[in-house]
């Protein structure tokens, strides 16, 4: 029996990935992506409410081109994302919208985001469902950001 809530330190880390693809021979474009990641902070295993947080992906292109940004599922199984902390795992998800209804994925797992520009900031909305029984510790996952243009 527990004397009170136990907080779990949880942090999601996102990988930096650079994408470069030549357009028609006369015009070449190059884009790169960077992410601040989504840091969930402390997690109370007894709280039934989900733990929400947000981060961002910044895409920088040397010319204004239309592009699509995808996030792979990370280390989780197909259809779900998981933060790992040693041998324990904690389910979470990333979304395109603040209402957390559209999963951000790679079009086979969730949806990608299509936009255009030279310097574009995209918000990433994260959620860890409540009442997951996991041991105390740090939990993380590394994702690949893919830019297609």
Question: Main attributes?
Answer:
149 residues; elongated; single chain; Immunoglobulin-like
Protein model, in words:
It contains no helices and ten strands. With 149 residues, it is mainly β. The protein has a single domain, classed as Immunoglobulin-like, CATH 2.60.40. Strand 2 and strand 3 form a beta hairpin. The radius of gyration is 17 Å and the shape is elongated. The N terminus is likely disordered.
Summarize the structure.
0% of the residues lie in helices and 55% in strands. It has strands at 7-12, 18-22, 28-35, 38-44, 51-71, 81-85, 88-95, 113-128, 138-139, 145-148.
Query: CATH homologous superfamily?
Result: Fimbrial-type adhesion domain
Number of helices: 0
Output the structural class: mainly beta
Unreliable stretches, pLDDT < 50, 5 or more residues?
Answer: 1-26
Helical amount: under 10%
The radius of gyration over CA amounts to 17 Å
Taking the alpha carbons of the first and last residues, their distance comes to 54 Å
What is the CATH class name?
A: Mainly Beta
* SSE sequence, one letter per element: EEEEEEEEEE
Number of domains: 1
Beta-strand percentage? over 45%
Looking at the structure, what is the overall shape? elongated
- Biggest sheet overview: 7 strands, antiparallel
Number of strands: 10
Corresponding CATH architecture:
Sandwich
How do the strands and helices of this protein lay out in sequence?
Layout: E1 7-12, E2 18-22, E3 28-35, E4 38-44, E5 51-71, E6 81-85, E7 88-95, E8 113-128, E9 138-139, E10 145-148
Parallel strand pairs: 1-9
Antiparallel strand pairs: 1-4, 2-3, 3-5, 5-8, 5-10, 6-7, 7-8
């Amino acid at each position: 029996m527990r004397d009170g809530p136990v907080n779990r330190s949880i942090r999601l880390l996102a990988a930096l990935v650079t994408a470069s693809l030549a357009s028609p021979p006369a015009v070449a474009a190059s884009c790169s992506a960077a992410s601040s990641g989504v840091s969930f902070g402390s997690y109370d295993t007894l709280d039934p409410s989900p733990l929400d947080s947000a981060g961002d992906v910044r895409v920088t292109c040397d010319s204004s081109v239309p592009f699509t940004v995808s996030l792979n599922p990370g280390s989780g199984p197909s259809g779900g994302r998981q933060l790992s902390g040693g041998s324990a795992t904690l389910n979470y998800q990333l979304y395109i919208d603040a209402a957390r209804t559209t999963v951000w994925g790679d079009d086979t797992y969730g949806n990608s985001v299509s936009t255009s520009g030279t310097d574009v900031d995209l918000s990433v909305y994260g959620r860890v469902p409540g009442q997951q029984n996991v041991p105390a510790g740090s939990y993380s996952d590394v994702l690949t950001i893919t830019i297609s243009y």
